[in-house]
Design a protein that fits this description.
Shape of chain C: globular
Mean pLDDT of chain B: 88
CATH class of chain C: Alpha Beta
Radius of gyration of chain C: 16 Å
Order of helices and strands of chain C: EHEEEHEHEEH
Helix content of chain C: 25-40%
Largest interface: A-B, 68 and 65 residues
Number of strands of chain B: 5
Oligomer: heterotrimer
Strand order of the largest sheet of chain C: 2-1-3-5-7
Low-confidence stretches of chain C: none
Number of helices of chain C: 4
Largest sheet of chain B: 2 strands, antiparallel
Distance between the termini of chain B: 43 Å
Number of domains of chain C: 1
Shape of chain B: globular
Structural class of chain B: mainly alpha
Helix content of chain B: over 70%
Chains: A mainly alpha (293), B mainly alpha (646), C alpha/beta (153)
Low-confidence stretches of chain B: none
Structural class of chain C: alpha/beta
Amino acid sequence: MIYLYRTLSMLAYVLLAPLVGGFLAGLDRKLSARMQGRMGPPLLQPFYDLAKLFKKQVLAVSRYQFMMVASFLAMVIGTGALFFGGFDLLLVFFVLTTACMFFVLAATVTNSPYAELGAQRELIQMLSYEPMILLTAVGFYMANGSFRGVDVFYTDEPAIVRLPGVFLGLLFILTIKFRKSPFDLSTSHHAHQELVKGVTTEFSGVLMGMVELAHWYENVFLLGLVALFFVSSAWWSGLLAVGAVLLVWFLEVLIDNTSARVKWNHMLRSAWIVTAVCGGGNLLVLEIIRMLF
Amino acid sequence: MELWIILLILLPFIIAIAQFLIRSDRVRKVLTYGSSGLIMAIALTLAALWYMKGQTALSLPADGGLLTEAIVPYIGYAMLGVEFLLMCVVIWLSVKHKRFLGALLSMAQMGLMGWLELSGKIHESAGVIYLDRLSLLMCLLIAVVGGLICIYALGYMKDYHHHHTELRDRRPFFFAMLYVFLGAMFGLVLSGSLVWIYFFWEITSIVSFLLIGYTGDEKAIGNSFRALWMNLLGGAAFAAAIAYCALTLRSVNLQVLLKRPVGTIGIMVFLLAFAALIKSAQIPFSKWLLGAMVAPTPSSALLHSATMVKAGVYLLLRLSPALGGQITGVMVQIVGGLTFFIASMIAITHSDGKRVLAWSTVSNLGLITACAGVGTAETVFAGVILLIFHAISKALLFQTVGAVEHAIGSRNIEDMHGLFRRQPGLASALIIGIAGMFLAPFGMLIAKWEALTSFLNAGGISVLLVILVAFGSATTLVYWTKWLIKLLAVPAGTRREDDRTANSQWLSLGCHMLLMLILCAAYPFFSDGFVTPMLGELGFAGAHQLLSLPDRVVMICLLIAVFAIPALARILSKKVRVEQSPLYMSGINEGDHRHYEDSYGQPKKMYLSNWYLTELFGEQKLYVPVSWATVIVIVVCFILTYGGAF
Amino acid sequence: MPKFSKSPWVMHYDGSSCNGCDIEVLASLTPLYDIERFGVVNTGDPRHADILLITGGINYHNESVVRQIFEQMPEPKVVVAVGICACSGGVFRDCYNIKGGVDTTIPVDVYVPGCAARPESIIDGLVQALDVLEKKSAASAALSEGESNAQQS
């Protein structure tokens, strides 16, 4: 029975994540506009954008571009599918890492100076968030005794009770993963910037469309990760998780609208310090408690 | 079986003598192909025989065998004689180059061992040779990887002396040393007596010293003497361990000693672990391995992959049951964990391909060391898997970088820009090697996964290791991805270049690539069927598998996906209408995608470089403080062990 | 059938202008005018742009730049000349270095006059450009359909 649910959950992710991701992206733009005192675009704007991108002409500069972007998209979908299928979290993160590597390669195969600049910054971003991502998986293992995502449904209390530090650390690096200011170093939606569009500079038409789509999939996966902290065997934990996800997401939009971009070395230092102190500290405390009792 | 074991140890030495005497290129070629094939065949036969004869551990001398207890003492004297000769060589070279530290260490060890042996303190002749799954695995790795490297050396060394006409062609010596190395490694992993292991241990130290100094220039001499004194320091610790065992514990048989209560063998374990840390180039003793790069590539490939450094981790894995939960184990864990993290950070700052590979070797050995130091069944399992995959990936990468250096005249990663078009074959070999080192779902990553899980299960101080591994994985990812970036970034209009790689080199590279893919696919089977029983032999009880069946299925699917998805996308991309367009350069692209028009209206060349983060992760900045930290850890641990023993 | 007019991404290029029109272009993004209501995204990358919005005239130095940026934009694409200088060269048209309006170099679809052009007229010009975009996409779709039909037969 559980296998059926897991399969259904995977399928639901693959089919529905673009809808949810696109909707959230629309809400993001609307919300940002309201925070700035503007009307903002229609709620469905991201879908219009995506439809247009898929119809536009493709201007490529390298014949490997399509291959890399398609691999990136496929790997991201795989990451999310494995996650929502309740597989081993470490496995999920390893696939995510592979996906991100394809994203970097998609930029650098073009030999474009701006894409290269963005890609090198993207690498620094990966360097910044990767330790915390792994420690998150480790935290779940220490809290639930299993790396498998599906096992949170068998716990008595949500993981957040034991992993507040890990959750804080994850929140910090989520801003990097969502490509939100102050950590939107490798690519961002703003015009008038020193790196043009960074990683995505040379992507046109369907290439850009696939990147957008992959980001929607990725965002849904990341929010799922947030939800994982709040889910337990109790029925109300689901409501708690949805509430937490919405709150986290609102927080990210707020941070995006109220902060300016930082330099990469500042990002790296702060992310590592937060990871070591919040994530590492939390794990050490858990281990000490385990050894004492 | 006995015959095959003896043959495996002795044959490489005989081949070495033959290699030394041969001056003709053609005869050398025939001999090298033949002997490498023969060594592989013997190792495989040994494995087959072991499989058919009940898969049990074998201890020699046995009743009615070729090797009788009566002969063993004479072999001991012969070994002493050889050691004396080696000491003479070291003293002669030390005097010649006026560097005496190595000579002093060598004489001290010789004195100690000579006294022990001649005064009859060592009289144990049972179980001098010991074969179990770990030995067998090492034999297979050494035979296959080492044999292939010797074949690779044929084409490589010919081209090498073609390029470096200023160097004296000492190829007979070089090939002889390669085979001595293989023989010593076989001896090392097949010996059960500490005295025998020590003998072969010293041979690897001195042969690596001779190989590093091959070119004979100032830098090579300096580096070779550094390698010498560091490894002889380890050798001195080894000799001290033997003296302690012979005088206090009344036995020099490792198998016998490891069955004793852990509390009584603490000092021996510490001394041996110290020697092993030096051999496997852990911080603060990493510099000798970095310096070893000055030697021709085949010797680097040999030192870094299946031999030399693996001798260190092999010994640690053997000792691991006695390391778990002990002070020495904590030392090994901390040194290994720190080395893994710090070395991978330093690797980010380098652009020299061989240097990156060297630091990555140090880093990965750190992880294996840490696994051995935790000393539970699961961590040792992870360590063994890491060892296998690392040996093959690293051998492949070193050999390919050597071939690339000859093809494009540089081993700098920046110069490998667009190599995928210029040298498709070599670039593919590099890509497979690099993918093997860090990508899901290749071996190294699986092994890292196992390591993380098993550290967590071990608990206690290992949680600190988990944090180090988390950071170290991120840094590892960065330096490999940077390399991939360079290989795949093909500027428009790049042309294919001549491939100067010899057939013998391609044979070796091809076999390594194939071997790695087969291993990745076969991993779930041999880990259960071979590695898990190995843990029982090493002295662990109740090993269980780490990865569940669904995870393994997913892993195999991933392995296919990693190749299938890009291939499929490549086919799909032919359906999509793609127009070529000038690269966006925020101004005028001069049309060749490499020059843009500057504000004076002049064309200016664009140069794309990787980031190296030297100001954050510089070698000067990190290495010295961490060296001091590890020295303090080792000293404190020594005091605690020594104090605890009395 | 997706509507190109629902997602116009604009790239703004500043030619030989006095910067007056540029200020007004940015003004149309502010809360008062909020051009994002129409889905407009101000992008800095020709690869992502549907509309090339140029202020200021063409001089002999930026001529090739404008031509290359136009070339780097994927089809269908529309050019909007904002301000009198972009339309015809304006007060600078007789200068020794000025070639004239944008249409001396690339085909212009919509002209927005004014010195400086008001945000209202810029928005009006962009909305007109959306119609052109839609027509061009229909034309290119018909063209490619015709091509594939020709291939089949």
